[in-house]
Amino acid sequence: MKVDELDYALPEELIAQTPAARREDARLLVVNGEARTHSRIGALASALPKRSLLVFNDTRVMAARLFGRKASGGRVELLLVEHMDTSDSGEERWLAMGRASKPIRVGAPIGFRDAQDEERLVAVMESRDGPLMTVTLRASRGTVEETVEQLGEVPLPPYINRDAATFDKERYQTVYARHRGAVAAPTAGLHFSDALLDELAEAGHERAFVTLHVGPGTFRPVTADSLEDHPMHEEAFSVPEATVAAIAEAKREGRAVVAVGTTVVRTLESACDEGGALVAGAGRTELFIRPPYRFKVVDVLLTNFHLPRSTLLALVMTLGGVDEVRAAYRDAVREQYRFFSYGDAMLVFPKSAS
Q1: How many Å apart are CA 31 and CA 18, to the nearest integer?
Q2: Is-contact 9 333, C-beta < 8 A?
Q3: What is the spatial distance between Cα 210 and Cα 96, in angstroms, rounded to a whole number?
Q4: CATH T-level fold of 3-61+169-353
Q5: What DSSP state is assigned to residue 2?
Q6: How far is the CA of 338 from the CAs of 176, 202, 228, 353, in angstroms?
Q7: Sheet architecture: strand order including 300-304
Q8: Where are the chain's structural domains?
Q9: In terms of CATH, what superfamily is 65-151?
Q10: Which residues make Cβ contacts (< 8 Å) with residue 221, sequence separation at least 6?
C-alpha cells in the first residue's frame, strides 16, 4: 500500500475546534461495504448488530502539558509522555518531551508554579535520547499526580488551533476513564455519555474494557513512500481477564465484537497469541495494521475521522476496504461532517460483510 492512498482533500473549516453541545449529538456515518448511511451517535443502539459487545479504552488523559521556568528564568514547556516508576518518597520518573529557548541541561531544575506564584513542582532531567528525555518530578506538597493535574493543561492535538479551555478537562476525557497515562484521548469514546451507555445496555448491548495509554506518536504522519517503511510508535496496553472472558462468550454466541476506537483494535489484535487466541495481561505494541491483514478479534469499528496520510486511516481501510473508506471520506467532506478528535464518527463494518 502506498502512502498516497491515505491522502484526501480536507477543507480546514471541517476540522472541529470544539466538541458538540452534548456528547451524543455527533453525526454518525455508517459504512458497510459500498453502502453508506447518515445517522447520529444517539441512534447507535439501533445501528449496531444485535447484542453487540462494545470494547472501550478506559485510559485517562492527563493534564500532561506543563509550563515552567529554569533557574535562569528561561521558559520551558514540558509534555509528559509515559510514566516509568514511582519512588518510595513519592517522586515520579517520566519520559517527556521538552521545549525551551535554549537546550535543557541534565541535572538543571525546572520549577512549576501555581496561580499564587508558589513553586509546587520541580522537574530534573536525568538523560536524553533523541526527542525524549527522562525526568524526575517532585511535588512540594501533595502527590505528583495531584500537582500535575492542578498545574497542567490538557495536551490538545496540534490541529486544534486554540489554547486549552476549562471545558477541555471534562470533554477531552471519556466518562469511563479510569487509568491515568494517556496524552491524547481515545476519541471515539468521547461520544458516549452515561445516558447513552445506559441506553445501549437497555437495548441488549454489553460492554468490556481494555487500557491503552495513547501517546503523541498517534499524530505522527506517514512520511515514507511505502507504509512498510514507516516506523510505528509504541504504546503500553493491558487486557483484563474479564474482557477475555466476555469476548470469548460473544464469539461462541456469534455476537459482534465492536471496538470503540482504533486504540482498542490495536490492543485486542496485539494481545493475541500465535494461534490467534486473546490473552489477558499487560504488554507493549508496535502493531501497524495495514492491508492485507486478517482481524483475529475485532468485527466492527466505531471511530472518528482520521488525519490524511496517517497509520490510523490505514487501519480503518484495512477493515472497511480501501476504496470503500475513501468513498466514505469523500461523502463526509461533501456532507460537511466534522473531523478529528472533537468531530463526528464512523461505524465501519468489514468489507466482506457487505
Answers
A1: 25
A2: yes
A3: 24
A4: QueA-like (3.40.1780)
A5: B
A6: 23, 29, 30, 27
A7: 35-40, 27-32, 345-349, 300-304, 257-260, 53-57, 206-212, 235-239, 281-285
A8: 3-61+169-353, 65-151
A9: QueA-like (2.40.10.240)
A10: 307, 308, 309, 310
Mean pLDDT by 10 residues, the chain (354 residues): 88 98 97 97 98 98 95 93 92 93 91 96 92 94 95 94 94 97 95 98 98 76 62 85 98 98 97 95 94 96 96 96 97 98 98 62
Q: How far apart are CA 314 and CA 294, in angstroms?
A: 14
The set of cell numbers assigned to 334 is: 461533501
CB neighbour class for 103 (10 Å; exposed up to 12, middle 13-18, buried from 19): exposed
Q: Hey, do 3-61+169-353 and 65-151 end up sharing a CATH topology, with the first three levels equal? A: no
CB of 251 within 8 A of CB of 268? no
Q: Which residues touch 217 (CB under 8 Å, ≥6 apart)?
A: 232, 233, 234, 235
Nearest by Cα to 269 from 285, 253, 251: 285
Residue 94: count other Cβ atoms within 10 Å of its Cβ.
22
Look at the pTM and tell me if it is higher than 0.70.
Answer: yes
